[in-house]
Design brief:
The structure holds 2 protein chains of 2 kinds.
Chain A: E1 6-11, H1 15-28, E2 31-37, H2 40-49, E3 54-58, E4 60-61, E5 64-65, H3 66-71, E6 78-83, H4 89-94, E7 99-102, H5 107-122, E8 139-144, E9 147-152, E10 158-162, E11 165-169, E12 174-178, H6 181-187, E13 193-197, E14 200-203, E15 209-211, E16 214-217, E17 220-223, H7 226-235
Parallel strand pairs in A: 1-2, 1-3, 3-6, 6-7
Antiparallel strand pairs in A: 4-5, 8-9, 10-11, 10-14, 11-12, 13-14, 15-16, 16-17
Chain B: H1 11-18, H2 22-48, H3 52-68, H4 72-86, H5 91-123
Helix pairs in contact in B: 2-3, 2-5, 3-4, 4-5
The chains are: A alpha/beta, B mainly alpha.
Chain lengths: 239, 124
């Protein structure tokens, strides 16, 4: 199967780093460069109205870090961080980035990272995990403040990811735990829980209304990202 | 035929980045001369103004470019300067590193400017 062409953009405040990445993209024949930005603010504006598959993203930039830029995205393109430092590796892991290229970036390392993304895009048809009905408890245990707190899945209204932390919101409590969104998603029942935004998973049975691009759950407005909107509308059986 | 970079530059590194293809190198060398070399006077201004935070930020931003044009020892000197700037008690350390750096920049930047001219001739 032929690998799909990846639509990417480059964000780095250093023009030399942009130039070498652009060269590598052209040489590879696998990535079309839809834009290159030395000003991260311009990249954010671009990303508000354009979808891309991949962002090559510097971490330390004037006014905003690469991680803060990721927080502002309303959908989830693959991210390859490009940085001179290894200090950001843990945070990068927490953000579930697709790759981490330490500068200077060689063509060999570039093409390996892009190759993984090509494979990922070629096989991205989602596979629903087979559910073992009746074999699982309807409760989960959440590690918080040095304790394991039992929580019924039925109680959860929604889950919000805030940096390296996840907040479980019920009608009467909020429990914060150190975790990743991806890890949490795997533990929640996919029939009842749905990711509606990079930072939010909701319990679909608790949705009261939909107002514009927000879900209303127990009086809280939960944003629906553009990337997730179609799936949300399909799952909610709108007539 | 593969392009041969000048021996003053780090040939092993340049091989890793460009594999002897001058078409790949020319845009990077051009960006270095237009952007990084142009920013160098700003390093002096920040050092003289004792603006350590901005000096560190600028050094961090421009230092990978020095590897991409084969100036590896200057990259290492910039790395050293960035680390000293990050330390709270940087005071004395910055001066001596900055002095060495300025000398090396005066000597080595023309190597890159000359290489860019050679590259342009080769891709025409």
């Amino acid at each position: 199967m032929k690998a799909p062409l990846i639509k990417g953009i480059l964000i780095d405040d250093d023009q030399v780093s942009l130039a070498i990445l652009e060269n590598y993209c052209l040489k590879s024949g696998r990535v079309t460069v839809a834009g290159k930005f030395s000003d991260p603010a311009e990249a954010i504006v671009y990303l508000r109205s354009n979808m891309v598959d991949l962002i090559f993203l510097d971490v330390e930039m004037p006014g905003i870090t690469g991680f803060e830029l990721m927080d502002q995205l309303t959908y989830s393109p693959r991210i390859i961080l490009t940085t001179s430092k290894t200090d950001y590796a843990f945070t990068a892991f927490q953000y579930e980035v697709a790759g981490y290229l330490k500068k200077p970036v060689t063509y060999d390392r570039f093409i390996r990272s892009v190759g993984k993304i090509s494979e990922d895009l070629a096989t991205q048809a989602p596979v629903a995990p087979e559910k073992e009905k009746g074999s699982q408890s309807n409760d989960i245990f959440i590690r918080s403040d040095g304790k394991l707190i039992r929580l019924s899945l039925d109680e959860i209204l929604y889950v919000e990811c805030i940096g390296d932390y996840v907040r479980y919101v019920t009608s009467d409590k909020k429990i914060v735990s150190h975790a990743t969104m991806k890890g949490i998603q795997e533990k929640l029942d996919p029939d009842n829980f749905l990711k509606v935004h990079r930072s939010f998973i909701v319990n679909t049975r608790k949705i009261k209304d939909i107002q514009d691009n927000n879900l209303v759950i127990n009086g809280n407005l939960i944003p629906i990202s553009r990337a997730h909107k179609a799936e949300v509308l399909q799952r909610l059986r709108i007539v | 035929m593969k392009y041969c970079f000048s021996a003053q530059l780090d040939l092993a590194k340049l091989q890793e980045f460009y594999d002897g293809d001058p078409r790949l190198a020319v845009g990077v060398f051009e960006a270095f001369v237009q952007e990084t070399v142009t920013a160098l006077p700003h390093l002096d201004q920040l050092y003289l103004a004792d603006n350590v935070a901005e000096l560190r930020r600028l050094v961090h931003k421009i230092k990978p470019g020095f590897l991409y044009v084969g100036l590896t020892s200057l990259y290492e000197k910039l790395n050293e300067l960035e680390l000293v700037c990050e330390q709270a008690d940087q005071g004395a350390g910055i001066g001596s590193i900055f002095g060495d750096l300025s000398q090396k920049l005066k000597t080595e930047i023309p190597w890159v400017e000359n290489e860019l001219l050679r590259l342009k001739l080769n891709v025409q």
